[in-house]
Amino acid sequence: MDNILPFDRRHLWHPYTSTTDPLPVYPVESASGVRIKLAGGRELIDGMSSWWAAIHGYNHPVLNKAAADQLAKMSHVMFGGFTHEPAVRLAETLLQITPPPFSKVFFADTGSVAVEVAVKMALQFWHAKKRPERNKLLTVRGGYHGDTFGAMSVCDPVSGMHAAFTGMLPPQFFAAMPRCRFGEEWNESDFTDMREKLYKNKNEIAAVILEPVVQGAGGMRFYSPVYLQRLRELCDETDTLLIFDEIATGFGRTGTLFAMEHAGVCPDILCLGKALSGGYLTLSAVLTTDATAETISLPETGGPMSSARVLRHGPTFMANPLACAVAKASVDLLLASDWRKRIYCIENILRETLSPAKDFPSVADVRCLGAIGVIEMNEPVDVAAFQKRCVEKGVWIRPFGKLVYLTPPYIIAENDLRYLAETAVQLLFF
Ligand code: PMP
After folding, report:
1. 89, 175, 198, 250: which has the fewest C-beta neighbours closer than 10 Å?
2. Which architecture characterizes domain 4-60+338-429 according to CATH?
3. For ligand 1, atom 2, which residue shows the shortest CA distance?
4. In this model, does residue 180 exceed pLDDT 60?
């Protein structure tokens, strides 16, 4: 491989880094299983699943075949006026593996766009019910829902991007972050602020949106599923829509197929993404119920949105056949595997190997849930220095802020996982 770094450094933006003084990047030649091969031959054990997505590892023969077979037929065709087997088969499977109330599937292209679509569904729902003043969202602090404007408006107002876009983001309501941790005894006071905020403002609120059980990029916190049970009851009492963003947690990551299963509750609108396509292609899905969809489609009788019977969204690459075919293969592969057992084993190994970090004064907390292991430091980690040492040791870990976390592919072998986690601890403290 030619040295691509000078051009990259001069001309390409990378996520969340300066363009004049960017964090270092490492050229990747190929990836297979849980190993990422850098130019020059060095191999890294993947601790990130490319941001929660590559659950089966890389270059998987089954997913490759699904992509190649679909490529030989068509990689894309517009979804306006056409339909195709990959979209229909994938939607069928998604409706089979999610709770019965879900009956409608909207395919979008990224997680952030799925959140935008979910928000549009909620707003159009209240518009159709002749309650257009119910046009705000209520969420919890500490959340993260993506980088587009609607999604940013419900990210944590302090750690999110609100300050950078003052005046541009629709104002929303924020309740206190859930404090009662996963596995801890439930404390009713944890829900007081949410209850008060929703009751006080229910005539303005279209929907409550949050990440069930795991707050991901907003801080990697695991909270009590009882919060979601209370929230479902409260949304029913106040006739408010409930949106779960399972973009990070979906498809097994927390030990159940979907995080909402920890609570045994079902939202009105569900966002899926990331692992949906096994990390191969960008694809997301928004699921909703007949009741919600039928309201959105109620005939309009005049007013400014006089043709509001349609959901006002329809991206160019909607239901991309290549992405849908790979996603269908990925979900089938997951369901056919012993994923529950694997994730249980990953959780145990992560707990065992990361726990010693608790003893260091620079550590605020260590926590594990499913195939997620987190070391929270007291101070931000020097990403460039830490990653350089990781690469030297043959592992791939990307910290953010004070968090060093592992979300490995589910197929990772026990010895690789132990090496990965032990290396993380060793590099942080020795
Ligand atoms: N919601 C959650 C919970 C996420 O973790 C993310 C991505 N980190 C998104 C939405 C946005 O997804 P995307 O990056 O695919 O737009």
Report:
1. 89
2. Alpha-Beta Complex (3.90)
3. 145
4. yes
